[in-house]
Amino acid sequence: MYKVKTVTPERLPTLLQGMPKAELHIHIEGSLEPELMFTLAKRNGLTVPYPDVETLRNAYVFDNLQEFLDVYHQGTQVLKTEQDFYDMTLAYLQRAKADNVLHTEIFFDTQTHTGHGLSSDVVINGLHRACVDARGQLGISASLILCFLRHLSETEAFEALEQALPHRDKLVGVGLASSELGHPPEKFAKVFAKARSLGFRLVAHAGEEGPPAYIWSALDVLKVERIDHGVQATKDAALVARLVHDKIPLTVCPLSNLKLRVFPNLAQHNLGQMLDSGLLATVNSDDPAYFGGYINENFTATFSKLGLTSTDAYQLAHNSFEASFIDSAARRALQDRLSEFFETFD
Ligand code: HPA
Ligand code: ZN
User: Fold this and answer.
1) What is the DSSP letter of 139?
2) Rounded to whole angstroms, how far apart are CA atoms 299 and 315?
3) Is ligand 1 within 6 A of the CB of residue 65?
4) Domain limits of the chain?
5) Residue of the nearest CA to atom 3 in ligand 1?
6) Whose CA is nearest to atom 7 of ligand 1?
7) How far is it, in rounded angstroms, from Cα 323 to Cα 103?
8) How far apart are CA 271 and CA 7, in angstroms?
9) pTM for this one?
10) Class of the domain covering 12-344
């Protein structure tokens, strides 16, 4: 491995802020900040059931994933037009750019919005137009991953896939999100097989609240290439060995885990243990408007609580490009920029 120079703890936040990185686990609806939520509500003649931004933000206290999903779902109701989806996505991309994210793979779902009477076309066209504009205006590359909602049926996931197919060229992959417990990956075996046959890259949330068995079945039944969260994997040594051997990336989201009480505090998070085991872990923000920080806050808070180092920083940023669904020439170019950043940092 590339030899990383030591950086003092005082300089570490500057290093983490400035280093080039990719973000691979961000739900675009979870980037909708309260300010924009009120703006969109007004534009669409709707009301947010909170008096102001501050009261809304103060309501973001959760005991588990489901409590969060209920609030998150309520927030999505202000999204009505293609322009709304565009504005939300561009706001995230601008924020990501400020954190020196050079590439991002954005999760979205259509089922939430079709459930509110919108068409998939409105959602996908708004998101895609923002990704295209961000490449030109911000120099950031972004691709889209359609997540199926696992609390709904596989038949409904098939419908979502079908409705997205006219936009096949705007999407890089499919994923699996929403309430994990009681909805194991194998519930979606057929729709993932179909997506695979159509050339979609495959990911799934597994082992966030759910057991290691869900990570096994995401790998063996769904045949996913990346695991989203996956923090429960460290409970199963054979699973860790498998993930290391097959170089399966894990998109870890420390502040999400803290806010949803997957870990009681960040000092007890297992990110350091994952790196020590040789797992291909990455750091991501999940739902930054709800969990108290974008990708760089995830890095700085976790590094300070776990005592991680500049070597860990390099490893995590390198992993983020390694784990991404970009072509090998682009990957090499981004990893070269990363090495150059570390060589010239002082
Ligand atoms: N887990 C599952 N589904 C989600 C999440 C999450 O953290 N965020 C948005 N949808
Ligand atoms: Zn997620």
Assistant:
1) -
2) 12
3) yes
4) 12-344
5) 178
6) 286
7) 11
8) 20
9) 0.98
10) alpha beta
